[in-house]
Every structure is written in structure tokens, then in C-alpha cells.
Amino acid sequence: MKKKIALSVNAGSSSVKVSVYDVEFGQAPVQLAEAQISGLTSPPPTLKYVRDGKTVIKAKEVDDNIEGQRDAFSLLLETLVEDEDLPQIKSKEDIGIVCHRIVHGGDYSKPQLISNETYEHLENLNDLAPLHNANSLGIVQLCIRALPTANNVACFDSQFHSTIPEHIRTYPINRDIARSNKLRKYGFHGISYAFITRSAAEFLGKEPDEVNIIALHLGSGASACAIKNGKSWDTSMGLTPLAGLPGATRSGSVDPSLVFHYASDVGKLSPASTSDLHISRAEEILNKESGWKALTGTTDFGKITSSAFSSSSSSSSSSSDDDDDDHEVMKLAFDLFVDRICGFIGSYYVSLRGKVDALVFAGGIGEKSPQLRAAVVDQISCLGFQIDDEVNNKNEIRNVVEEVGKKGGLDEPRVLVVQTDEQFEMARACAEDAEFWSKEKDKMMMTWRDDK
Ligand SMILES: Nc1ncnc2c1ncn2[C@@H]1O[C@H](COP(=O)(O)OP(=O)(O)O)[C@@H](O)[C@H]1O
Ligand SMILES: CC(=O)OP(=O)(O)O
Ligand SMILES: [Mg+2]
């Protein structure tokens, strides 16, 4: 069967990552390049570009015209098409498939070729993932216009969690309303959890359906997942990606009544609503004006960690009151995150009846913060997890999976870091599905909509 050049587009809440692959039906995708813009919630955003495994641009600040995920994607596409040393994409017509990460996929249990019908269905889910879905659909629209020869495929964060049992995914509310309004736990970061499950299983020398894992995807959005026999059993995000752990601008779980005591008129539509996204003030406060940003003034957890661990606190006579305040609040944020993460680990450990092969750290924070990993594992040492300080403190995690825990007895759970790769996972799913290779594009493809 034919080969195609595929782009995998991962629009996160603070970044857009695009990887380019050579894909052949039924084969593992081969990565040619990866470009990303991060720091969208802590400007200036920065561009990183890697081709053939070599860093071409390390961290270039890009100007303020990048207003969001769609602008970031345009710049990334331009970077790829204009790179003369990437001969596989001489022009936009060389791109055959674009895989899009769509966070909320509702009831979809497999990736979908994007037709008018799928697009409209997904548009109806925009309000259930206010930091993600409308941005991703904006990128889909842009691809339809800019890449007329490509098939667009939607891959869903929620898909991996379709195995969560009913007693876990059900909210204790009126059943008729729950059914008619489709109010249940969906769960997100599932593309990442699928990658983590396969990679961790391979590392542990087991089949994916033999492993029990507690996985933590800790990035701008953070979640935990209990994986039983290779399938999602429970996860911390819910109907929307707001529930569970706090994030860069998200509160995570709070008392549902809190928002009514936070401000008046929280039920009204926010002035920031658009034709694509209807968001109440309450949702805006909890999704965009909370989390690390509200608590500390920064969305960068790297900054929070270094300040929390700096010694510029009370012991130093030269430190200013401001430094002390900064240190205090950063330490509060760090300790709060550790507390919430350990709460989920304890709960999932019991839910998995103590049969846990490994705890996995992933996502920007999970992969880059040895301090956070050490603090979490220290707090759960009563469950048999132990960190190996020497390996954990190494400057950089280089392999896809690295063990940062002490190898104890046969029954002792392991501690791993997985460099998750949502773009690869999406390209892999597309390469395996004959539908995306055989359908006639003209029949399926939706048309550009002038209202976008
Ligand atoms: N050295 C570091 N230590 C702790 N956290 C870090 C470090 N570097 C980056 N991060 C965090 O990782 C986050 C980005 O994670 P990532 O998973 O790439 O984001 P996204 O959720 O947009 O996909 C940043 O917001 C930052 O807080
Ligand atoms: C679902 C989610 O929160 O994703 P991200 O962490 O990429 O923003
Ligand atoms: Mg992400």
C-alpha cells in the first residue's frame, strides 16, 4: 500500500506540538521532524524545532502575534514547509494525512475521518473542553483550507477511557437528566495513557493487557489514571478536563458550591464567549483564572519548583520580604500539588487492590521535575514505592522509559518516567486503520466554511 507523509497535531492548553512522519499502512510511523511552540500561557511563546533527531532551533522566542493555538500552528506549518532540509515536504501538497488531537470526543470509541457530520458533532462538544476543542477545530479548519490534498483524522483523548466501568463513570445525580444530557465521566489525556501503557508494558516485559499501572500525566493540564489489565479503570478528569488535579490555570476539583461564593453573576455568559465557545463566568474562573496562575502568578511549574526549593527564605539575612513571600507561596503550590497527586495514588492503589506493577510519571512536569517525583514517592513510601535519588536527579531523561525507583523485591511496585508522545500515538493509530487509507477523500472531506 502507498506511503504518506503525516502530520500529527497536538494542541494542548499551553502548547502546540506538530510531528512529521513517514507512514506506511500497518507499519510503525518513522519520525522526520518535530516542531513545537510552548509557553502560550506564559508569554513570550518559544519555538523548538528538531529534524532527523537533531535540534535545529532550541528555544527561539516568537513574537507576540501568536495569540493562540491556531496562530501557533500556522507558524509551525510555515517552519516545516519552508525548511529546505526537509525534502519530504517541498510543498503543502506533499502532506497526505493530518491527525488532530481532539480532547473531547464524546462517545466516539475510535479515531474518525473528519467529514461535515463528524465536524458538526465535535463542534457540539466545544463547551465541554473550553481550553481545547474549539482551538483544535480551528486548526482543522485551517488545514482544510491550507492543505487541500490531506485527509483530516480526529483522534480523541477521551477514547482510552471508554472502558471505565459504569459504577466509576456515573455521577450520583438524576439518572434521566444524566442520560439525556450525557453527563458522565469521560476522562482525558487518553492518547498519552495509551502510549504510556504500551511503552511501560514493553519495558516491564509484559503484554499491555497484563499490566496494572497508576499513571500521572502532569503538564499544563494534569491528571491521574488507574490502568487495570492495560485498560482505563478510573481517571481524575471527568465530564470536562477541569475535574481532579489542579493545572496551570485550572482549579481542579473544588467544592462545587465554591464558585457561587467566589463572585456574583457566575452563571452569566462570559464576555469572552464566541460563536464557537459559550463559557459562563463560573467556567472561565475555574478554567482560566485559577490553578498555578492564580495561586503564584506564574503558570510555569519549573519556576514554582525552583523557587520552592530555593534557600532565599528566612535563613538568609540578605533576602527581601518579597523573596520570602514568593518562596512561601511557591512552596504552598508545590506541597498542594503533591498532596492532591498522592490522594489519587492512594485511592487508585486501593481501587486496584494493591496489584500495581508501576507508578508512571509523564507530561512536562512529570518528565522534567525530579523534585516533584521525589516528593510524591516519598509520601507514598508506605505502599512500597521507593525513589532512587541518584537516577532520579540525573539532568535529563533520555530514553522513552526510564526507571527512577529502587528495584525492590519481585512484588514491589516500580517507579518509571515515560517520555510520552501523543503525536506518535496518533500517527500509529492512523497507520493501522485501513479506513483512513481507502476511503475516497472527495466524498468524505468537508468544505471550508466561510464563517470561520
Ligand atoms: N524543568 C521543569 N520542571 C517542572 N515543570 C516544568 C519544567 N519544564 C516545563 N515544565 C512544565 O511543563 C508544562 C508543560 O507541559 P506539557 O505537557 O508540555 O504541556 P501541555 O499541557 O501544553 O501539553 C509547563 O507549563 C511547565 O509548567
Ligand atoms: C486534557 C488536557 O488538559 O490537556 P493538556 O494538558 O494538553 O492541556
Ligand atoms: Mg499536553
TrEMBL record:
PANTHER family: ACETATE KINASE, ACETATE KINASE-RELATED. Substrate binds at R101. The record marks H189, R250 as: Transition state stabilizer. The lineage of its organism: Eukaryota, Fungi, Dikarya, Ascomycota, Pezizomycotina. Keywords: ATP-binding, Kinase, Magnesium, Metal-binding, Nucleotide-binding, Transferase. InterPro entries: Ac/propionate_kinase (IPR004372), Aliphatic_acid_kin_short-chain (IPR000890), Aliphatic_acid_kinase_CS (IPR023865), ATPase_NBD (IPR043129). It comes from the Eukaryota. It holds the Pfam family Acetate_kinase. Pathway: Metabolic intermediate biosynthesis; acetyl-CoA biosynthesis; acetyl-CoA from acetate: step 1/2. Belongs to the acetokinase family. Its EC number is 2.7.2.1. Mg(2+) binds at N10, E422. ATP binds at K17, H217, L218, G219, S220, G221. Its cofactor is Mg(2+). It catalyses: acetate + ATP = acetyl phosphate + ADP. The active site is at D157 (proton donor/acceptor). This is Probable acetate kinase. Residues 306-325 are annotated as: Disordered. Residues 306-319 have a biased composition (Low complexity).
